[in-house]
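WARN retry 2 of 3 for item q-0093 after timeout on previous attempt; input resubmitted unchanged.
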Amino acid sequence: MRRGKGFTLIEVLVALAVVAVTLAAGLRAATALADNTERLQDVASAHWCADNALVGLRLSKQFPGTGQSQFDCQQLGRSYQGTVDTQATPNPNFRRIELRVADAQGRVVATLSTVLGRF
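OK item q-0093 returned
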């Protein structure tokens, strides 16, 4: 009996299974990369909103009172809601400012804390 050259059916099926598993893993990695990119854009935009609100406080040249206030922000076509929480510090010439920025679903995306001095 003479053997022909080439692959058997089982060898071809095993090779196809290996290729299918490899492609599925690659697709999963690409999806994770795309999700991370979107999350990074969201966080960067939220930080810009918080930075803009903080710069607005500094440019107002007024010492902020204690309490909470709200602000809205648009960045890269996305809407964000922000909260500014101003607290007193042991030194009366400084205020602790905490800015929290949430996305449209209400999830906090970015937080920025700083100390603002009297001008």
